[in-house]
Amino acid sequence: MPKTPHADAGSVIGSLWMVFAAFCFATMGILVKITAVKFAMHEYELVFWRVSFAAVVLGVQAMILGRSFATNYPLAHFWRSLAGTISLFMFFFGLVYLPLATAITFSHTSAIFLAIFSLLLLKQRPSALTWAALLVGLVGIGLILRPSVLGHGLLPTVIGLASGAIAGYAYLQVRELSLLGEPSWRIVFYFSALASLLSAVISSIKGWTAISAEMLPYLLGIGLSAMAGQLAMTHAYKVGRKFMVSALGYLVVVLSTLYGVLVFGEILPAMAMVGIVLVIVSGILASKK
């Protein structure tokens, strides 16, 4: 059946929205790293500024539009939100202590772990393409791990990789909630609300950094870029083609690599770069299933 001009236009628009989302997420990553280095802010504070902005905006928007916060699946929302929050804490720890490209790549192993959890927990039988994607992805992770451990230590490496694994589990819960009929805004709102609460509590225990006028552009930039990226990505999947949009999502790894080189002079070993490429290939293959 021939493609219609409308379908082609939707594909192009979806692709452009995903490119914009990748730019936003890469910008958020570099802003988190700069803020941590420049102002000595710990990852829990940074997570608070990342999620509280979205919680307030989504909450106010829902009230204005008369949307209901009530859900028939509070426990499912809690476990999804808790997994997402823990993953975000680990991801931001990785952003602070690992090269930007490595931390971003570890977070994008979520697609690999999502396939693994679908196999182990849901007993879904993977296709040959999914098996190939898993194999390529695991080889890529292995190539990244060795130079990361040697260059930056075991703890940051393990925590960075764990952020991708737990994010994979969180995405599995998102998929299940979506199948139950829960709207995406409510899933994101409850996640943002719980993450805001937990990060505020932990930051109060560890101690807050006094906010100065110099910090505000960075903190607002983290919240704005994260929310804009989330909205752009959601819209990209709505109007674009799933495979093309998923593939372009890995542009964030490329942009983060460039940011790391330009801002922090981060040059990764050749083995790590090959591993990053393999993880990207794995994610693209997995999105074709």
TrEMBL record:
<feature type="transmembrane region" description="Helical">
    <location>
        <begin position="184"/>
        <end position="203"/>
    </location>
</feature>
<dbReference type="InterPro" id="IPR000620">
    <property type="entry name" value="EamA_dom"/>
</dbReference>
<keyword id="KW-1133">Transmembrane helix</keyword>
<dbReference type="GO" id="GO:0016020">
    <property type="term" value="C:membrane"/>
</dbReference>
<feature type="domain" description="EamA">
    <location>
        <begin position="159"/>
        <end position="285"/>
    </location>
</feature>
<dbReference type="Pfam" id="PF00892">
    <property type="entry name" value="EamA"/>
</dbReference>
<protein>
    <submittedName>
        <fullName>Carboxylate/amino acid/amine transporter</fullName>
    </submittedName>
</protein>
<keyword id="KW-0472">Membrane</keyword>
<feature type="transmembrane region" description="Helical">
    <location>
        <begin position="215"/>
        <end position="236"/>
    </location>
</feature>
<feature type="transmembrane region" description="Helical">
    <location>
        <begin position="129"/>
        <end position="147"/>
    </location>
</feature>
<feature type="transmembrane region" description="Helical">
    <location>
        <begin position="104"/>
        <end position="122"/>
    </location>
</feature>
<feature type="transmembrane region" description="Helical">
    <location>
        <begin position="12"/>
        <end position="34"/>
    </location>
</feature>
<feature type="transmembrane region" description="Helical">
    <location>
        <begin position="78"/>
        <end position="98"/>
    </location>
</feature>
<feature type="transmembrane region" description="Helical">
    <location>
        <begin position="46"/>
        <end position="66"/>
    </location>
</feature>
<feature type="domain" description="EamA">
    <location>
        <begin position="13"/>
        <end position="145"/>
    </location>
</feature>
<feature type="transmembrane region" description="Helical">
    <location>
        <begin position="153"/>
        <end position="172"/>
    </location>
</feature>
<dbReference type="InterPro" id="IPR037185">
    <property type="entry name" value="EmrE-like"/>
</dbReference>
<feature type="transmembrane region" description="Helical">
    <location>
        <begin position="267"/>
        <end position="286"/>
    </location>
</feature>
<feature type="transmembrane region" description="Helical">
    <location>
        <begin position="243"/>
        <end position="261"/>
    </location>
</feature>
<keyword id="KW-0812">Transmembrane</keyword>
